Amino acid sequence: MPADSLSSAEEPVYLNWNMSVEELDRAIALNPQDAVAYFKRGVFQSNREEHAGAIADYDRALALNPEEAHAYYNRGLSKYYLQQYPGAITDYDQAIELNPDAATYFNRGLAKDNLQDYGGAITDYDRAIDLNPQKANAYYCRGYAKFKLQDYVGAIMDYDCAIELQPQEAAAHYNRGLAKDNLQDYAGAIADYDRALELNPQHAKAYYSRGYMKDDLADYVGALADYDGAIELQPDFVFAYHDRGYTKATLEDYAGAIADYDRAIALQPDLASAYHNRGAAKDQLGDYAEAIADYDHAIELDPQDAAVYHDRSTAREQLGDVAGAAADRERAAQWAA
Fold this sequence. Notes:
Serine Threonine Protein Phosphatase 5, Tetratricopeptide repeat
């Protein structure tokens, strides 16, 4: 299950003024060399999420005053929101050269995170934390980057710090639970998912992840309840249907499992495991021909899955297709090797 998303970027830098955007337009018309007026108008546009216009104003401000760190910072932020991450990083580089503050290092880290440069992002979050040790979102995002690098112990340590500073942040509890899950600390993961749901009862992924943990701990009834919660909040949650189907099959509710796999396939028709598992449920109900049809689909999508060939061989045997069963056993042995 993916971690919750990164924290939001820091907001644009403001300069003190009491002018409206109309007054700024007039000021620029009267004096097209007024760098501050362009900068201020850029901030207005940033706040209205008119980032292309904001960038144009910051461009003009910087052409007139190349030493204005705030303009580089704000232009980088607008580029970030337009998903122009390399350009954002270039602007943050300039801003840091002129004014190395925590917010700029943090935002540059976010841009690197979005380019999957997790090592570079961690370096920037390190610097942001050095400059502002109370910056909870820097610990949170550094934990996210470490999680992506599979440094789960390091991620947990950062989420601990983020939670100490902002204990009401559901996303930090949830992501810490994911890291604990990956370290097989299932009880600790469930405790974090519990807390995430106390703080944010609308957190569908926390219900799903807690259900998955309960499944691993053979608490199938509890798992079903959590998958139900995830689906109620997010009716298009493919894997909640998929995994609820698996749990129902474990409890020998094969008809219920098939209904959930139907829904998962309707939402994601290329999900090979849903066809495989639906075939297995049909197999258990003695519907061997339909099971084979599902195994066929699964193999089309993932032709190297030895388990599907094995299961199809069993269904073919039930229908008296000895040659087909033997061929599937050979393929299963080939891909299992």
